[in-house]
Structure prediction request, 346 residues.
Amino acid sequence: MTAAPSAVLLRDASVPVVATDARTGTPPATAPQRNPGQPFDRDWIAEQRVNLSAVERRVAGLAGRRSVKKDAQAAWLLKAITCIDLTTLSGDDTPERVKRLCAKARQPVNPELLAALGVADRRITTGAVCVYHRFVGTAVDALAGSGIPVAAVSTGFPAGLNPHALKLKEIEASVRDGAMEIDIVITREHVLTGNWRALYDEMRDFRAACGEAHVKAILATGDLKTLRNVAKASMVCMMAGADFIKTSTGKEAVNATLPVSLVMLRLIREYHERSGVMIGYKPAGGISAAKNVLDYQVLMKEELGRPWLEPELFRVGASSLLSDIERQLEHHVTGRYSAYNRHGVA
Prediction:
């Protein structure tokens, strides 16, 4: 049997695994403050440039240059679990499916496996549960006392083409029902036509409607055509008050990619350098394998530093990813891969 990683190793690997305070069930006191936004600055937007060749070279060498193996890999994967927004966004969702998803969020890894890994004393949960507005109340009730926030997709998700007033009412309704995080979708037309003021004003309205709930701005990067558009849209949304910027709805033909992620992370770094505000990042769509999430974690650490590996600043939108992480952890302990149906989510 493979030696299990100790709690000390998990700390030494720079990947502590606690998502919430075990005594109170609340996020750590060091959670970043809300992003107040910045005044609209057209020059700041216009100066954004992307060197496509440099981006491609940077991400092409990522996997070959950084190899996380054995105990360290188990630690990183446990950390990844605490950053998952466990998601169900299907047309056939039901209250029972959402309740099962919430139960999995509370106990994402088999306790026997956690004991074998030497972390039975750690309180490991997913970062959030993400659902449509219809199921916010169901998820809030199912997660009561856990400290796990409910995230609601909003503003006419996934296309974002509802009337603006209805988008604001949808946000407000989800907040009233108990959502602590709102994943909004921007109007892609504003980006594609270069109407940055309209995008800024839209995002400011969304931010105001969220109240105390944190807002994640979904850029739908697969629809934005160019990395320069991704860069400018990222900056405008942060400027207008987004607490997170997120790649995709998961419904586009192209979702999260490493080149898009690199561009967005560089913009987060620039915004932090100018404003002092730490913005979170969420890749979503197509991240279903443990090896893929490791690439995103390494990129986050290299580009932004250790603080951005916490769930307060890093989330991964996923559903099937958790099952593959469990399989990899079981292989680490037993040397054998188990069937996917032993690690079902919902």
Q: What stands out?
A: The first strand starts at residue 84 and ends at 87. Residues 1-31 have pLDDT under 50 and may be disordered. The CA atoms of residues 85 and 132 lie 13 Å apart.
